[in-house]
Structure formats: structure tokens, C-alpha cells
Amino acid sequence: MVHWARAVMDARTDGLVSRLDVENMDALEISGDHWARNFRWKSFETVHYPEIDICAAPAFDRLFDIIFAEQVFEHLLYPYRAARNVHRMLRPGGYFLLTTPFLIKVHDTPNDCCRWTAQGLSYFLEECGFPRSRMTVDSWGNRACIQANFTSWVEFDPHLHALENEPDFPIVVWALARK
Known about the structure:
Elements: H1 7-18, E1 26-30, H2 34-38, E2 43-47, E3 64-70, H3 79-89, E4 90-101, H4 118-127, E5 135-140, H5 143-148, E6 172-178
Parallel strand pairs: 1-2, 1-3, 3-4
Antiparallel strand pairs: 4-6, 5-6
């Protein structure tokens, strides 16, 4: 099942990652299993927020080639600290894939603190140490999807749900940033 709010984001981020040499990469996913299920990695680990507080310190003593944080950073009390810790856990040239909602209902499990536009996300990541010249940042959304997701998460149905983008109504924002 794919949520309508994630359909385009999932396809585009999968496309970005599929161009990488994933079979020779050590990967870490924060609070998820999408990337473990859909790609073959040299090694793969996962940690879960809030059990592991990525805001407090790097989650591992070792380094990774890519770190994923999908739909996590909006829940963090200190996202700047977390992104700096991610930066510390990446090897030189490593990647950070961050996805986050923008125009979507508040879902405070346990908190809902931060939202970024695509432009805001690029400056946030730059402030955390990632050069903007080495980022791919994008967003997707439309009014119909925003309205449908006001009260519940709507499963995507290609026969019912439009995927055209209305840039002034971003639902989700994502970035692939390279250290």
C-alpha cells in the first residue's frame, strides 16, 4: 500500500537511489525499512526514533555511505543537531536522503515540530554542513491530495487520484544531499 501523499516522492527518491552503486554501500535507515526491502546493500542497519535519539549524538561509532531519514525530521525537537549528527556519521562523499511532509495534517507521534519548503530544506541542510551545490531537492503536492489527507492517510488509487504537481501546494519535500 502506498499513501497518495507519498506516491510521487517514493518513485522519485527510488529513482535517485537506483542511480547509486548501492551494492557497494553501507546504509543506515532511521525509523523505517523501505530501503532495506527494495535495494541490495553491502550492509544495512536500522535504528528507530525515539528509541535512538539522533538529536543527542551520532547513533553509531562507524561511518556510512548513505543515511535515510524518511518522515522523521518533522518529529524531532532539535533537527539541526540531528542533521549535524547524520553529517558526522557519513563517509566523505556519503549521501543523506531526507524526506519530510509540508502541507499535511499535524501528526504528533510523539511530536510534530518542523516543516520545510524545498528551498528551506536546502538552506537547512547547507547550514548543517551539506553543500547546496551537491543537493537534489524537490517537492510534490496538489490541493486534492491535501484535502483528502486532512482526516486520514489516503491509499493511492491511480484510477481516482491525480498526480499532477501544483508547486504552491507541496505535501512532501525531499532532498538527496552529498557530503
